[in-house]
Design goal:
Helices cover about 30% and strands about 5% of the residues. It has helices at about 90, 115-120, 125-165, 170-180, and strands at about 15-20, 60-65. It has a two-stranded antiparallel ribbon.
Length: about 200
């Protein structure tokens, strides 16, 4: 069909005007456009696995009631209604309670990745990431231990140098350097040792 540019629909109701996802320094999203007053789960407008045939919504978006003709990535033009609708349905106040972000590839059960992880447990990918992190921490600890050992080694080398300096001294000189360790018995009277006198 070649006449796709003649397709026109009127009185499309806008449910939400959303902003693009903004990220912090760590690469985590800071604004959650799919969160409502009744559903406080932190989630963005993109469903799990992305929109079929489109992917992830990275820019500002409009949520409209009903369908939109054409393929997924076809640009469309919106303009304000010439005749203002005066029906009760048009005048009602829009208050979204829940925005479904489950996977559109089949029957999606979970709204977010965290919810899915909580139900199924850790995946192989998560376990590998944890093992990698632990390995990194072990390597850092080993590096620190090596540095401490090297610092101790330098102290030992200094002691060895001191030992080598006194290596070639005589016993009496070594004693003089260390200082005499002999202590007086402190005994007086009967227990005191008598000095031997030389015989003439």
């Amino acid at each position: 069909q070649k006449g796709y540019f003649h397709r026109t629909e009127i009185h499309k109701k806008i449910y939400k005007v959303g902003k693009a996802i903004s990220y912090d320094e760590n690469g985590k999203p800071t604004n959650f456009e799919a969160t409502t007053d009744h559903d406080i789960t932190q989630k963005n407008i993109t469903p799990m696995g992305g929109f079929v045939g489109y992917g992830i919504v990275k820019q500002d978006f409009l949520m409209i009631k009903g369908t939109c003709p054409g393929i997924r990535k076809r640009p469309i033009t919106l303009r304000k209604a010439i005749v203002q609708p005066s029906t009760t349905a048009a005048k009602e106040e829009i208050k979204l309670r829940f925005i479904d972000t489950s996977s559109k590839y089949g029957h999606g059960r979970f709204q977010t990745k965290d919810e899915k992880k909580q139900w199924y447990g850790k995946t192989k990918k998560d376990k590998l990431a944890e093992a990698k992190q632990k390995q990194k921490e072990r390597a850092e600890r080993a590096k620190l231990r090596k540095q401490q050992k090297a610092a101790k080694g330098t102290r030992k080398d200094d002691d060895d140098e001191e030992d080598q300096s006194s290596k070639y001294l005589s016993k009496s000189e070594k004693r003089r350097q260390k200082g005499s360790k002999k202590k007086d018995s402190g005994k007086k009277g009967k227990g005191a040792k008598k000095k031997t006198k030389r015989k003439n």
